[in-house]
Amino acid sequence: MTIQLKQQLLAPEAPPPENKSIRQEDAGAVFVLESKGEWWHAGFHLTTAIVGPTILTLPYAFRGLGWGLGFFCLTIMGVVTFYSYYLLSLVLEHCEKAGRRHIRFRELASDVLGSGWMYYFVIFIQTAINTGISIGAILLAGECLQIMYSSVSPDGPIRLWQFIAMVTVVMMVLSQLPSFHSLRHVNLASLFLSLGYTFIVVAACIHAGISKNAPPRDYSLEDSNFSMVMSAFTSISIIAAIYGNGIVPEIQATLAPPVTGKMFKGLLMCYSVIFLTFYSAAVSGYWVFGNKSSSNILKSLLPDEGPALAPTWLLGLGVIFVLLQLFAIGLVYSQVAYEIMETKSADVNQGMFSKRNLIPRIILRSLYMMFCGFFAAMLPFFGDINGVVGALGFIPLDFILPMLLYNMTYKPSRSSFTYWINIIIMVVFTGVGLLGSFSSVRKLVLDASKFKLFSDDVID
Asked: Which of the four pLDDT bands, split at 50, 70 and 90, describes residue 25?
């Protein structure tokens, strides 16, 4: 960390933001993004936003990179995203000390870059990411229910879309938790659930790897150079999306001011969990299944043909933990949509639980969840679409904009290390994002023949 960054952290506190009176008339800020949290609450929110069942995709990402490049990309992405989120928190702190406390990513980008179109660019990208993750969470939760049902009744009549409908109803109920801060206990449970199913999967993979039914291991990459390169960039996009967040300002908004240094502690908590979960899931899964790893390692452990490769009760427990955490993830990534809706629909002078605000909240949040549930049922191949959304969305918000905002805010000398490392990260990840988008679109096209609306099978 440079001396300049340390000085910024140790800078004296500033007076309360001048725009406080404006915030008091902003229902989205007062109700959804209420600022009451401590640093550990931010750590819970960050962990839920990053450490989810997508980590079970890491062995699949490794199969496009191999051991060496897989470890390298996993580590570099971790270092860069930690650095990126830290810089973004510093920019937010700087603006707060100047009397402009920003609680929304779109407002921060528009203010620092002085461009009205940037406001709409960020809100478009955020909405695409957050809605995509909410749809994906409902789809994966429905798939978890289907897995458990199939183990009990292999030829049962209940279809995937019906399980998705069940999940959607539960999400409609949970979505009535009024504020982001009110999710702190849910997200603490989510943190323990992520540790729980990760260690279950690691234990199951070790059991499968040393059993007599252990699958043959092949760590070779694609045959042709072009396919190898495309697979590598698809894998890089997957890892970038897994580390992606896209709602750091909204999470920082839940902290009680002054916020100086609190997000750094929250990030340390989050990345401690990331270190434990990401590496153990990637290594154990890829070690056992190699280039036959499924996009969900639980599917590899529960093959369509032959016996389960680990005790079914253990895998069932892992599936339950995944299912429960998906509810938390869907709630976290819905907060931006709820904040936008309540900014327009709620009357801050009537109170959070007044009939005037409660009825629109129930209706609008329920309609949003029904929308996500409908698309989850209609598009059970949403993983391929999410790959494109991740490359086009997470990389700009998490790997490019924070560096640009920092350089514009603090204006480090062009001869400084901080300035040039930020420029290099922006340039490299712009290229990675473009190539990742191309490779993800290519996979979407190759899989198109398998797509069927309202299918009962989820496409890898």
From this structure: low
